[in-house]
Amino acid sequence: MTLQELEAVAVTARVGLTEEEKExxxxxxxxxxxxxxxxxxxDTHDTAPTFYPIKQAGFLRxxxxxxxLPKEQALANGPDVxxxxxxxxxxxxxx
Amino acid sequence: MADWEVVIGLEVHxxxxxxxxxxxxxxxxxxxxxxxxxxxxxxxxxGTLPLLNKRAVELAVKAGLALQCRVNQFSVFARxxxxxxxxxxxxxxxxxxxxxxxxxxxxxxVDDTVRRIGINRVHLEEEAGKSLHAxxxxxxxxxxxxxxxxxGIGLIxxxxxxxxxxxxxARLFLEKLRLLLQxxxxxxxxxxxxxxxxxANISLRRKGSSAFGVKCExxxxxxxxxxQRALEFEVExxxxxxxxxxxxxPETRHWDESQGMTFSMRSKVEAADYRYFPDPNLYPLxxxxxxxxxxREELPELPDxxxxxxxxxxxxxxxxxxxxxxxxxxxxYFEECMEDIQDPKLVSNWVMGEVQRWLKAHGLEAxxxxxxxxxxxxxxxxxxxxxxxxxxxxxxxxxxxATGKSAHTIVEEKGLRQISDDESLEAMIAEVLEANxxxxxxxxxxxxxxxxxxxxxxxxxxxxxxxxxxxxxxIRQKLQV
Lengths: 95, 481
Known about the structure:
The complex is a heterodimer. In chain A, helix 1 crosses helix 2. Chain A is flat and about 55 Å long. The longest helix of chain A is centred in the first third of the chain and has 18 residues, at 19-36. Chain A is an alpha+beta fold. In chain A, strands 2-3 form a two-stranded antiparallel ribbon. Chain A has helices at 3-12, 19-36, 71-75; strands at 60-61, 81-82, 85-89. By secondary structure, chain B is of the alpha+beta class. Chain B folds into 3 domains: 4-295, no CATH class; 301-414, no CATH class; 422-479, Arc Repressor Mutant, subunit A, CATH 1.10.10.410. Helices cover 40% and strands 21% of the residues of chain B. Chain B contains 15 helices and 17 strands. In chain B, helix 2 (167-183) packs antiparallel against helix 3, helix 7 packs across helix 8 and helix 14 packs across helix 15. The A-B interface holds A 12, 14, 51-52, 56-69, 71, 74-75, 82-93, 95 and B 18-20, 24-27, 33-40, 43, 51-57, 76, 83-85, 98, 131-133, 138-139, 141-148, 264-266, 273, 275, 278, 280, 282-286. Strand 3 of chain A pairs antiparallel with strand 10 (143-147) of chain B, so a sheet runs across the interface.
């Protein structure tokens, strides 16, 4: 992994990197990727893809309304609450 | 446009008509207090698990069937990951490479030609929350307010193939799609409440070219008219760029309704990396063929089939059949009225004309009309029996809408019964002929147009109550023409 790739992944995941991490991570992550690549050697051409580890049909619920959280509780963790809404900074980035 | 071909594909989101959300039991009712219909599951709090709403699956399958799709027995929920304030979990539960329904189509009548628009997929996902932007719009907002009542409501995303060839066709497609989803009772499709939303991808290419041009995605299309207008603007914008030898930038653009223009929102190149992967909190969805068949049974007669049946069964024109089936309510109204009075031409003319006019004036759907189909039949029977003239019947219908009284009551109360007895008519005709010697001479001289004038005068004298056919006959007899 190059430093450029590392920085791109960090931006996508909204993760900040220190200068030290920028130096050590590319090498370490390259090693992890190489390790995982061992799996590429397995012949899977007639194996069905696994989407879930156990074979089980999904559970379904009936369409019935259940009580929601009391509003005060729903808003309790909000750092900036205005008139029953969560307030967030402007969404569109400056050009 | 001689050199360019327009290529449009639409992504349409429709909210499902379930009582509760797709992965939790919170109510889906519109217009509640902000953040009063939320719970740990739809707020994405740690340690919660989603549980799929059975009805949401049924409605999504129903939509797929109405759009002639294949329903996939096995489909998988995936996480679509991005950061946006309306998305509490920082991922949306959606479907990626194994959607619930695939490969359908919708047929449209465009300039008397049947156009078939391919449906790539219909998949099930969850709604995001709703943001209110302080200031005029999202571009200029200082901050935004978030209401998560909508977060987690069941949604279908319908993706078309890039088969649409003009902005007008895009609007017609949406109108047809809405009709189908409303007929199937999958979604109420209210664009103004946001229960139907549309994003459009558009690109231009040289005529005859099979490669696609660079496309832009247009957002904030809040009405069918906006879809057409925004696309028309975009066609011109892209054409101007291409003809000047410049490149179209692949990006998301925001439609500004008041300015009638699209604006760049953010560069698509650096955005869209959704890192889809199967959601480990949800088992794959299995829909047995027997379940699909049971859902198919629930499907009502769809608009195209109904239109064809109306033409066949009632001998209606294509136009009349299209108008009458343009809403399920209106079609039902027509058919209920037909049960009482078997005159398709009379009933269809009245339903398409006067009834629709007063429904519109009162802002009502046919199902909520104060004049029920049997009430209209009562009025039309009076017309058939020549008890009232067409003209008077129109006034009577207006009164029926206003007061809810029956046609019979209004006609009797106001003495509107048509005058058909010759004795009364002849007296009126004699007066009119005496007062209009000029036109009488014209008629005698062979100018048959003047008869119309004389009939009109008799109608006026009778306050619209004279039977015009009989008046016409009697005048001809009298003047021996």
